[in-house]
Amino acid sequence: MTTASDPSYPAHWEADVVLRDGGTARIRPITTEDAGRLVSFYEQVSDESKYYRFFAPYPRLSDRDVHRFTHHDYVDRVGLAATIGEEFIGTVRYDRIGPDGRPASAPADEAEVAFLVQDAHQGRGVASALLEHIGAVARERGIRRFAAEVLPANSKMIKVFTDVGYQQKRSFEEGSVHLTLDLEPTAESLAVQRAREQRAEARSVQRLLAPGSVAVIGVSRSGGGVGAAVLRNLRDGGFQGHLYAVNEAVTTDLLDGVRAYRGLGDIDSPVDLAVIAVPAERVPEAVAACGEHGVQGLVVLSAGYGESGAAGLDRQRELVRQVRSYGMRLIGPNAYGVINTAPEVGLNASLTPAPAPVRGRIGLFTQSGAIGISLLSALLRRGEGLSSFVSAGNRADVSGNDILQYWYEDEATDVALMYLETLGNPRKFTRLARRTAAVKPVVVAKGGRHTPAGHVVPGTRLPDTTVSALLRQAGVIRVDTVTELVDVGLLLASQPLPAGPRVAILGNSESLGVLTYDACLAQGLRPGAPLDLTTAATPEDFREALRAALGSAENDAVIVTVIPWVNEQEPQDDLAEALRDAVAGHPGKPVAVVHVELAELVDALSPAGGLPGAGVRPEPVRPESSGAAPLPGALPPCPRASNADGAAGASGDAGGAGAGVRIPAYPAAERAVRAVAEAVRYGQWRRANAEAGQVPEYEDIDEAGAAAQLAGLLADAGDAVLTLTEADAAALLARYGIRVLPTLPAPTADDAVRAARAMGYPVALKTTAPHLRHRADLGGVRLDLATEADLRRSYEELTDLLGTPGELLPVVQAMVPRGVDTVVRSVIDPAAGAVLSFGLAGVASELLGDTAHRLVPATERDAAGLIRSIRTAPLLFGWRGSDPVDTPALEELLLRLSRLVDDHPEVVGVTLEPVVVATEGLSVLSATVRVARPPARTDLGPRTLPSY
Q1: Helix, strand, coil share (%) of the chain residues, nearest 5
Q2: Is the dihedral angle over the CA atoms 801, 804, 808, 814 positive or is it negative?
Q3: Model confidence pTM above 0.85
Q4: What is the 3-state secondary structure (H, E, C) of 488-507?
Q5: 682 closest CA partner among 427, 440, 851
Q6: What is the C-alpha separation between 123 and 121, in angstroms, rounded?
Q7: pLDDT tens digits for 221-252?
Q8: Helix (H, G, I), strand (E, B) or coil at 168
Q9: How far apart are CA 543 and CA 583, in angstroms?
Q10: Distance between CA atoms of 412 and 738, rounded to whole angstroms?
C-alpha cells in the first residue's frame, strides 16, 4: 500500500506542465489515497470516452477496478494523473507484459499503455503531456516499448500516438489498431516535444499579455498605494478590455472611475488576469479567490518573498504551488508589472505612470524593477517604443525563457532586450536564444557577474569572459550595461544588418571623426579614413556625402558625426531631413549619428519632431514583400519602421522622401560604434549559422559500454565527486575513440629502465606529484632520453633536485612527434551547463587567459571555430613559416569529447593536458576525469516547469 508519504513513493516523478492552451496542470503518480478522486473523475467522463477506453459500455468502475487503478508497485505497474487542484483531468497507466502479452516483470521490456482524459479537457494537450511523462518513467524502469490497442474510431488517441515522434509500428488486428512505440528518444520526438513546449509556453505568456479583462486586487479607497497606481495606469493607458477594482472594504460602486467590488467572486463576468497588490500574508487568500473564479494568470506585485530571506523563500515556494494547483501562471512575486502596447490590447498593468511607452518593435524583459524603470525611461527619452514589457521580479514561475518562447513567434517584436541576473535553466536558455536569434536579435545585459556575499542570485564558477563567449555562440548579443542595452537595441530596431565590418565615417569635425575611427578599430571594425566636411558644411553637404557613402560598394555601414554650427542659425531640422532623404535612397545599409550637444537634432530624429500620429506604428515593409530581389547571401534586415513607432531615430515630414526613415543618434562616438560593431558581429553569426552545424556520428563510439562503466564506478559513490584512476580514465575515453598515451610507474631507477625497454627509446621521464604536474618550468619533465644512461642520469637529477621518488611519483612515457602543446577541457557549470574549452598549454591559457569556449554538444562548425577563436591560434596554422599542425585531428578530438560529456552527464569534468598536435595526428599525454551522479537533465526529459 503506497501513499504520497510512503518512502517508496517516487516523488521525483511529480511535475508541473504547461498545456497547449497555456494553462497548467500537475502530473503525479496515482496512490491508494486517490480512490475517491478516481471515481469522481470517471463519473465526469462521457460514455463515448469510456467506450473508447474499455472497448465496451462501462458506465462505472467496480471496487476491483478502483483497487487495481490505485495500487501500483511503480515498477511493473504505474499510473499517473494530470490534476488541477485536487481534481483529476486525465490518467495514464502502463502494465509491463511479456512476449505472450501477459503481466510480467523485468527483464521484460514492453508495457501496455492506456489513457483517459476528461472530455472537458480534451484538446488541451493533456494526453500528449501524459505520454511524455509515462514514457520517461518507463525508460527509467527498463521498459523500451509501449504497446497500445485503440479503436479505429478513436482518431484523437491514434493521433496522440502517431504525432509523438517515436519510431513505431502500426497494424490492424481483430477490429482494433495495434500500435507499438519504441521509447528511445529520437531527433523527431525531441523536435515534437520542443515544438509543443514552445507553443504551450508562448500561449501561456500571451494569455498574460493580452487579457480580455483585468481585476486589480488591493486598490485603496484613498487613491494611494501600489494597487491604485496600477489601476490608474490601466485606465489611463487605454486598456481595451473590462477593468475591475477589488477592495474588501469598498462602499461605493466606483473607485477612480472603475467598477469596484468587495471580492473577486462578486464579479459576474470572467476575469483573465488579476494584479495582486496586497500584503504578502494576504496573498494566499487572493490567489484562492482567483483560482475559484477561473482566472488564467496573475501578476503579484507584493514583496516579502524570496528577496527577504529564508522565510520569504518558503512563502514563495508555497505561492507557486498554490498558483499552479489552480492551473494558473504567475509573474512575480515582487514584480514591477507588464505592458502590451498593441492597439487592440492597450495593457499597462505596471507601476509605469503616464506617459506610457508607445507602440514599437522592441520587447523588453527584466528581472529587476529598478532596472526596468531605468530602461523604460531611457527608451522614452530617446523616443523608442515597445511591443511588450515584462518585469518578472523574483520570477518564481514565468521567466525569461517563457518570454523568449513568446517573442520567437510574436510578429510585433523584432528585437528582444533582456536584463538577466541568472540564466535560470542554462541549457534551455541557450537553446531558445539560439533559435530566436536565428530570426531576430536577442540582446542581453547580464548582472551578477560578481555576486556579493549574501546575495540571493547564485553565481557561476565560470569567468565572465567565458559566459560572454557562450552567449555569443548561441547568437546572443552580450552587453555590459543597461545603457549599451538601449544603444544596441535602438540600432537593431531601426537599421538593416550590415553586410560586413567596413565603416565609412563622415562629418563636420575632424577630431570627432578621428575619435570615431579609433573606436572602430578598437571594436575590430574596418573604418575608412574619416571624411571631414568642415564646420562650414550645410545640410545639403551632409546629404550628398551620405548618399555617396551609402552608394559605395566599399562600405557596409556609415557613421555620421555632427557638432554644433558656429552661426546663430541652427538648421537641425534641415539636417535631419537631409540625412533621412539620403538614407531613403539607399535603404540597405545601417546609419548611425554621433552628435555633440545637439538636443534639437536628437528631437528632430525622433517621433516628437516628426509625423502626426506618432506612437502607432504601421507594419514595417518586410524584405519578402517589397518586390525587390535580395542580394545573394544577404540576410533579411532588421525591419525598418515608420516614425509612428516611437523610435529614437529619423521620422520625416509627411510626404517627404525620407518620411518613415529612422536614424539612431548617440551622444558619444564609442556608444555608436559599439552598437554598429554588435550589429556587424550579429550579422556575421546569422550568416555563419544560416545552416545548422552537425553533431557528427562516430561508428566506433561505445556509448553503452561507457554507461555501464560509469554505473559501476558510481555504484557506491553516493553524492561524492570521484577522480578516476589513470587506468579507468583511459578506458572511459577509449570508448569514445580518445587514446591516452600510457605511462608506466618508475618508483626506482631500475623500474624506469625496465619501463623504457618495454616502450622503446627515446622516452620521457615525468613527475606526477600534484604540485609539479604540468609544470615543465620547474624541471619535472625530461624529454628525448635516448639511452639507459640518459635515463638514469635524469632520474638522479630529478630526485636530487625535487624530492624523493615517493614524493615525485615519477613515470616513464614514450616520446611522440613534436608539435604544439594544447589543453582541452570540459566542465559542468551550474549556471552555464556543459562547456568545452580549448587553449594552448602553459602561459597562454594559464596566465593570459587565452582560452575559447563552446557549449556542449558542439557541432563541426563549433569545433572549427573553437580552435580559431584564441588569440594564439596562428601558432596552429604555420606562424612565421612553421609547419601547420593537424587541426582536423584536433577538431575530431574536441567533437569526441563533446559527445562523451553530452551522452553521459555523469562526466562532470575532463582535462586533457597536454595534447600535442603534430603535423600529422595528435597525442593525448595525460587525462584527468571526474565523475559524479548527475542532476536531472531537464532539457532531455519530458516537459516540466521549474520546481522548488
Answers
A1: 35, 20, 40
A2: positive
A3: no
A4: HHHHHHHCCCCCCCEEEEEE
A5: 440
A6: 6
A7: 888 899 999 999 999 999 999 999 999 988 88
A8: strand
A9: 9
A10: 49
